[in-house]
Amino acid sequence: MNDSINPVDSKPVKAQSKARQRHVEKPPITIITKAQMAQALADRELQQRALGSDSSSSQYNETTAIQPYFSVQDLIVGYDDTIVVDGLSLDLQQGEIGCFLGYSGCGKTTALRAIAGLEESRSGKISLNNQRLTEQAARVSFAVAPAKRGMGMVFQDYALFGHLSVAKNIAFGLNKWSAADKKARVAEMLALVELSEHADKRPSELSGGQQQRVALARALAPKPKLLLLDEPFSNLDVVLRESLAMNVRDILKRTNTTAILVTHDQNEAFALADKVGVMHKGKLVQWATPSELYHEPISPFVAEFVGEGTMIDGIIKEGHVETALGDIYRRMEVYDASGQPQYCEYDYPNGTPIKVLVRPDDIIHDDDSTQTALVIGRVFRGANYLYRLQLDDGQTVLSLVASHHNHEIGTQIGILPILEHVVVFDEKDINATTWSEYDRAERIEEIR
Ligand SMILES: Nc1ncnc2c1ncn2[C@@H]1O[C@H](COP(=O)(O)OP(=O)(O)OP(=O)(O)O)[C@@H](O)[C@H]1O
């Protein structure tokens, strides 16, 4: 979504709103209709083709599309009468790291186990490196045995053999290798996870983080086509988790390993994965890069689950959205002849109540801004303060502010809303998903 706000709008939403009155001059913005935008996009494609720089046209994609290295299509897995994984589809290219992120019980581990072949799927197709691993369709039904899938697994409890040394643990999956190759591979893996000097120790003599690295080395040693990591850091303390996640990412990237991680920890997912799939009640709600999930969530559930933020009220007015922060225009990646960005009308009729997602980094603190908000709460986060700010009409937003800007609760501070990636949701969506009190209570129960 490529929407943006005009932060200096002069038209007040409500006559009595001080914040709206402080907005000065409004730059000229022409909002074009959806039909005009479709035409503009088509023209742009034609132009790109004519210039020979087109990498997005369907013609190009048809002839050069890369077959995904790993692919899952419409996977359904259930226990008895309950569907636990419901129509899961995703692709990964070789060397990419994917992640299933979601609350406890949403089906992440079941999806991972089905990919590994440890859980039977009811329907769907799984392919890895040009080999079909499962297919359950009307006329075809087969599943490659788990041991023949070429996958490695790293578990939450590491599952190391306590009576074997670190080196022997790592060598465990290499029984078909020659003694010399095995020795060389174990040494290579020990160096990779920086545990060479611990080769002869027992796992119990290592820290949790070191044990996890042994588990990783053991899983990587046989050169798996796909590595599956099930909550691999959950036994470690929070501080260690993120740094180990970055360390593991580095190791996976250096070895060009394709991997899928399961976690309920967003920081871990973002630190490790290239693509993150938010799961909810068995469905993969969105499969996207961490940045896309944060800036372009496709539903209020994803918006709330990923990152911090608040939803503020808006209303559709002549193709744009009016809010207490200013008027929001839907900016597209299409430019007119003079190089100015084009704005398209929103997909909702005039007068539709809208919710607008505002992230803490969308609200810049600026001492010189004429637009202000009241500090009603703040949390010290070392380099930053997370301020909770009240707008003139009583709605609240969050703002991430460098911690040398130390403003007391109860004071007004200048703000500059920079809503480059603003996302709007129809109020109907909000009610239909997790923003209702009922679902909040249900989720709290889930977490407990
Ligand atoms: N062997 C099983 N038999 C019956 N139901 C199961 C079985 N394993 C899991 N379930 C149920 O399937 C649902 C999804 O479980 P799953 O372990 O895949 O979730 P998850 O998202 O990985 O959760 P967590 O983060 O807590 O591990 C849950 O409701 C769980 O109770």
From TrEMBL:
Residues 70-306 form the ABC transporter domain. Keywords: ATP-binding, Nucleotide-binding, Transport. PROSITE patterns: ABC_TRANSPORTER_1, ABC_TRANSPORTER_2. Coiled coil: none annotated. The keyword Protein transport does not apply. SMART domains: AAA (SM00382). PANTHER family: SPERMIDINE/PUTRESCINE IMPORT ATP-BINDING PROTEIN POTA (PTHR42781), SPERMIDINE_PUTRESCINE IMPORT ATP-BINDING PROTEIN POTA (PTHR42781:SF4). This is ABC transporter ATP-binding protein. It comes from Psychrobacter glacincola.
